[in-house]
Amino acid sequence: MRCTYSCGSAEHVLSRRSFLGGTAALLGGAVAGVPGFSPFALADSLEKKRKQILVVYLAGGSSQLETWDPKPKTETGGPFGAIETSVPGIMISELLPRTAKLMHLMALVRGVNTHAAAVDDHGKGDYLMHTGRAQAPGQEYPRLGAVASKFLGKETDALPGYIHIAPGHGGLGRNESAFLGPRHAPLYLGNGQAPANTLRDPAITDPADQSRQAFRCMLNDRFAKRRRSAETEAYTSTYEQAAKLMRERDVFDISKEHAADRFRYGDFDFGRHCLLARRLLEAGATYVQCVHSNYDTHNENFAFHLEQVGEFDQGFSALLEDLHVRGRLEHTLVIVMSEFGRTPHINFYQGRDHWCKAWSIALAGCGIKKGIALGKTNAKGTEVVDHEVTGGHLFHTYLNAVGLDPAGGFEVDGRPIQIAEPTATSIKELLA
Is the Cβ–Cβ distance between 186 and 173 less than 8 Å? Predict the structure, then answer.
């Protein structure tokens, strides 16, 4: 369904890049400096139990007032109330009754202010929240998914290191891996569908397929001895990853889940995508991003959030509970974020506009303290009055939580680059 209430910016038009389009980008990207990387210093525990990251991205800018930081019975609060959670003293929107029961597993960050870097712009806010840096002309930094793929993933992994589940056709077609190279670009799963062309033609027998693969490998090896480059390695890596995906194709099929579990997650796209995210994490995916769209509610904010936050509450709570019960939450960092929040002011169309001066995100899982709410906004939610943080602080915190050193770095064409914004620091109050 076409979104009629949003601001109409380019960020709300999903590109047609499917898996094949993404693969073409992987094959064609010429990235300078890839051979010169030196790895982050990893925590000792990282080698004992691999860390994973799950991002639930509420695209368009979800309202903090209808989710994590309600202000009931105020002129900016809107019609919804606040409810108690499993943590005494922490209240969230009444639209999140299932998630409220899991607050003891979570941490809320209520003092996010990204105005200096994002200025209420969808693209700039999206970039900041995924890279920890302000967007600037001529500069591209890798997104969190690419960083996770590079430093938490392994070449032997059956699944790509960065998997992005999105409604519609899939991704936005950006250079999300930047100088980390095409190997760490995302695999887009449009509408949560399995990657295209991962079923072998039934006319090709196993022996014939093995012969083809052996012949291809021989030609690749011969070529690489004389003309090895980042591009040829990307070609080889892509073919090898495609072969692995063909062997792992069943992991994308949520129909293999029990009917009761599919019902529990919800019979709607976001619920199905959350269930797929759990299957991917259980299959060893390093980073999974699951998008719920479109929260750009300039019109009818309350009617939209009533329905959309209800979907989020069901799908997300089922996913978080499963990660906890199955013992995966202790080594999976969970992040729920948007590009910004929504204005405390309610406009003429009963909507809320873009607002990055005082908003909220939610965290859970490895490296994060449980059952806390850090930061505070004033009575009307118009400004942060305690523990103000920005996207750079959050990015540092994510890296620390999964055992990576935010001050670590690498070289690109002989130039040292720190992976996290050098002027920011981690939020120590959030780290376990």
Answer: no
401: left (phi over 0), alpha (psi -120 to 50) or beta: alpha
Which of the residues in the chain have pLDDT under 50? 1-2, 14-48
The whole-angstrom separation of Cα 194 and Cα 309 is 26
Which pLDDT value is given to residue 232? 59
CA distance 210 to 173: 33
What is the pTM (predicted TM-score) of this model? Answer: 0.84
Give residue 49's Cα distance to chain centre.
21
Residue 418 — φ and ψ, nearest 5°? -85, 135
> Any idea of the CA torsion for 17, 19, 23, 24, to the nearest 10 degrees?
-40
**Residue-level pLDDT at 171:** 60
Nearest to 4 by CA among 355, 339, 352, 300: 300
Q: Give the CA angle between residues 402, 404, 406 to the nearest 5°.
A: 120
The alpha carbon of residue 352 and the mean position of all alpha carbons in its chain are separated, in whole angstroms, by: 24
Q: What are phi and psi of 30, to 5 degrees?
A: -100, 110
DSSP for 284-301 reads T-SEEEEEEE----SS-H
Q: What is the largest CA-CA distance in the chain?
A: 72
Rg over CA atoms, the chain: 22
Q: How far is CA 225 from the centre of its chain?
A: 38
Q: Among 344, 370, 379, which Cα is nearest to 76's?
A: 344
Contacts of 270 (CB under 8 A, 6+ apart): 290, 292, 311, 312, 315
Residue 253, classed as helix, strand or coil, is: coil
Q: Which of 228, 260, 240, 252 is nearest to 165 (CA)?
A: 252
How far is the CA of 151 from the CAs of 90, 101, 281, 409, in angstroms? 35, 34, 17, 11
Asked if 73 and 115 touch (Cβ cutoff 8 Å), the reply is no
Token pair, residue 52, equals: 């994973």
β-pair partners for 106: 364
Residue 103 to residue 366: CA distance in whole angstroms: 15
| 162-186 pLDDT, tens digit each | 999 998 866 656 789 999 888 899 9
Query: What token pair was written down for 67?
Result: 């989710």
The whole-angstrom separation of Cα 402 and Cα 396 is: 10
Backbone torsion region of residue 284, taken as left when φ is above 0, otherwise alpha when ψ lies between -120 and 50, otherwise beta: left
